[in-house]
Amino acid sequence: MIKIGVLGLQGSFAEHIAAIEKCGAQAVDIRHSWQLADVDGLIIPGGESTAIAKLTGDNADPIFDTIKKRVEAGLPVYGTCMGSIFLAKEIEGSEQGRLACMDIKVRRNAFGPQRNSFETSIKIDALGAEPFPSVFIRAPIVVSVGADVKVLANVAEGIVMARQKNLLVTAFHPEITSDLRVHQYFLDMVSASKQSKTGCAVANPDCVTA
Amino acid sequence: MVIETKDASNKISTGTELVKKALPQMLKGGVIMDVVNAEQAKIAEDAGAVAVMALERVPADIRADGGVARMSDPELVSKIIEAVSIPVMAKARIGHFVEAQILQSLGVDCVDESEVLTAADEEYHIDKNSFTIPFVCGARNLGEALRRIGEGAAMIRTKGEAGTGDVVEAVRHARAILGEIRLLSNMPREELMTYAKNIGAPYELILKVAQDGKLPVVNFAAGGIATPADAALMMQIGVDGVFVGSGIFKSGDPGKRARAIVKATTFYQDPAILAEVSRNLGEPMVGRTARSLSELEQLALRGN
User: Which of B140, B160, B190, B300 sits most deeply, having the most CB atoms within 10 A of its CB?
Assistant: First the structure.
């Protein structure tokens, strides 16, 4: 069974755990680096990025470094909202602590204060014909992406879903609606990564996994 | 509010119930700190607060000063909004919907309809459903929590007894709310209407709580939390996060205490980490026992 870790330091981690379990996979709350050893994928939930940066940054437990190493070794990671900020190489006007793994530039709080937070339906081809119900809470947007980043969804203000190999980000929060397609998309990424790894180990130890 | 975009199929809706309830969901597991100026707001943000509560005086000073406590000066609220990137909350008096309108227009992310301020209406609370931004309200028991949610509150906190540094009332209120939820979860359906009547709660919300085994909104602890251990106690009792008011900026080393309380709220189940962060925090706020308060001094008795 696929086992997904959900970073449980702060934010909407319980909602992500429930969504993953509804998809039929196992989900565990991750607060320490040693818990990352046997997960097949990691979700970084919505929350406050400065708070998470603080909790991971000046932590005696090296969870920040462990996540970064596993991401670089190909661990599939999905970041929602704050999670996308945490993964981004560049944050407009900020040097706050982050993983800096994904070749995207994000603008924090791109829509203004909470009174501008909104819900809408977005057409996302990767998820099928049915528009996806998307909730944006003081959300960031992706303002620019590197060459090998695939843009999966846009709103008028910018990019709101993107993927670079093993990394997936959304500016919106699928974990607080009942539509599981984004979580299922991520689980498909995880199982593809898992299969290619186990396949390689048996058939050809030298092959490079995606 | 529904705004038509260029693409007619793509309606953008702000201020919906889902959007309002989602903001507090993102704050779960975090600490919301009372601040009285931009400098304190920066200290709170740097310590890892998930939001700040902007107010003119912390509850301990409101108690000491006496007089009427009102919404903060908009200038102060705006300066705090400018100073930080985390959400900013601000307090309006119970029933004072014009203060709440002003706060919404300033761009605060959430209004606390708060018993810490002097009540403007001793009969009615604000119709929170009519606002675009979410509200948090205090409660001492499940009936009070569900009445506020019925009025549109998107987040509940215990009332506790603000400005005392005594956690006993927050514990009492959290245990009351969570205990009544556990009771409801095991109650046969035919008893639910009478229970709703007895605690003065909307029947539909009683049905929902009985079915889900939890409140339909995020539930924080507030009122008297002064130490990392207090924060972890409330988390272990079962709340989703904590508010710390006077406890931080009335203590000897606010930055250090703020960081310690943030860490204690995340690692609330780990006594070794709690011991580590509780070391050498300097003087806690002096405090005053909740039991020593006369009925007039008990803020929790404001609003019902």
Answer: B160
